[in-house]
Amino acid sequence: MKRIFHWIDRIMRLDEVLASAALFAIFLVAISNIFMRYLFNTPLAWTEEVLQLLMVWATFLGASALVRRNEHVLIGMLSENLPASLARWNDRLFNVGMVLIAAIVLGYWGLQLLPYSSFRSTPMLQIPYVWIHVAIPVSAVVMAYHCLVRLARDT
């Protein structure tokens, strides 16, 4: 059973690698469009759609990576002024709990968005918008997993 959780944890750590790869791809696509536009006066028409897809995935996968590393936005003023035992409970209740609730809400509304986006596609490349919007529930599931793992490890 421990091996299964080890492999699940390794798969869930792919969020950071994929977010970094998406950011690098954003850089390459944007630079290539700038190069084509200003040197050859022929901009690439498809870059905006690819950049949109990559930016959404980089944002949501990056958010889940930040939750895993506990580097997401949080309010630390209260935890810093509490005794250690209370600060630990504050971290569990507010920081992890609120991120878990946010992940559940994000996942719910992300799933509600998918049926509306399945009929639309991008004008140039015909990429279905569902491939862009599916980043929301995927990220929410990974964030919720990271929160539950942190809660289990802290107890």
From TrEMBL:
Superkingdom of this protein's organism: Bacteria
GO cellular component term, pick one: plasma membrane
GO molecular function, one term: transmembrane transporter activity
Pfam family, one: DctQ
Keywords: Cell inner membrane, Cell membrane, Membrane, Transmembrane, Transmembrane helix, Transport
Ranges in a coiled coil: none
Entry's transmembrane regions: 21-38, 50-67, 93-111, 131-152
GO biological process, one term: C4-dicarboxylate transport
Localisation per UniProt entry: Cell inner membrane
Record's function text: Part of the tripartite ATP-independent periplasmic (TRAP) transport system.
Assembly information from the UniProt record: The complex comprises the extracytoplasmic solute receptor protein and the two transmembrane proteins.
Family label: Belongs to the TRAP transporter small permease family.
Listed name of the protein: TRAP transporter small permease protein
Annotated source species: Chromohalobacter canadensis
Lineage: Bacteria, Pseudomonadati, Pseudomonadota, Gammaproteobacteria, Oceanospirillales
